[in-house]
Specification:
By secondary structure, the protein is mostly beta strands. It has one helix and eleven strands; from the N terminus they run E-E-E-E-E-E-H-E-E-E-E-E. Strands 1-4-5-7-8-9-10-11 form an eight-stranded antiparallel β-barrel. The two termini are 29 Å apart.
Length: 174
C-alpha cells in the first residue's frame, strides 16, 4: 500500500496558508515558575504536497514585528535589538529539507532562520486531514533562543527554550 493510499483524501498540489484559520504560537518559561505565551499575527507559507508525501515541502515566513504577547511594552522590548532586532531582521523563515514518517506523525526537517542565524530544526507534525480544497496540519518544535542570538544567555527571567506550535489550514491553489 502506498503512503498516499494511507492518507484519506490526500491531494497533490500547492497550498497557501490561510492566516485567518491558522496560528503560530509560542511559549517560554518566565521567572522560572510560569510560562509566557504569545503569537505572531502576520505570516505566510507555501506547502507543496508531492505524489509521495515524503517528498513534499514547505516554506514559511513570519513577520517578527507582528508578535503579540498581550503586553505592548513587552512586545516592543522583544522587537528591539535586545531580542529580535526586528528593524534589522524583520522576518524569520523556515525551509524544509526532508520529511520522515514517525508512526502517525511526520517529522519535518528544515532550516530555521531567526535574527540572521540559520539552524536545523525538526517539526513534529500531525496531519489533520484533507477536505475538498483544504489541508490541516499541526506541528511543534522547541528551539533554544540563544542559538539564534536572541536575548542574553541564562534563563533567570526568560527561559532559553521556546516551544513553537503551529495550527495550520491551507487552501489549494486554483
Amino acid at each position: 500500500m502506498t503512503a498516499t493510499a494511507q492518507i484519506p483524501g490526500y491531494t497533490t498540489g500547492t497550498w497557501d496558508i490561510d492566516p485567518v484559520h491558522s496560528d503560530i504560537l509560542f511559549s517560554v518559561r518566565h521567572m522560572g515558575v510560569g510560562k509566557s505565551r504569545g503569537r505572531f499575527g502576520s505570516f505566510s507559507a507555501e506547502i507543496v504536497t508531492a505524489e509521495d508525501p515524503l517528498q513534499s515541502s514547505v516554506t514559511a515566513t513570519i513577520d517578527v514585528s507582528s508578535i503579540d504577547t498581550r503586553n505592548a511594552d513587552r512586545d516592543a522590548h522583544v522587537r528591539s535589538a535586545d531580542f529580535f532586532d526586528a528593524e534589522q531582521h524583520p522576518t524569520a523563515t523556515f525551509r524544509s529539507t526532508g520529511i520522515r514518517q514517525d508512526g502517525e506523525d511526520y517529522l519535518i526537517d528544515g532550516e530555521f532562520t531567526l535574527k540572521g542565524v540559520t539552524k536545523p530544526v525538526t517539526l513534529t507534525a500531525e496531519l489533520n486531514g484533507f477536505s475538498e480544497n483544504l489541508l490541516g496540519i499541526s506541528a511543534t518544535t522547541t528551539i533554544n533562543r540563544t542559538d539564534f542570538g536572541v536575548g542574553q544567555p541564562g534563563g533567570a527571567v526568560v527561559g532559553e527554550k521556546i516551544t513553537i506550535t503551529l495550527d495550520i489550514e491551507a487552501q489549494l491553489r486554483a
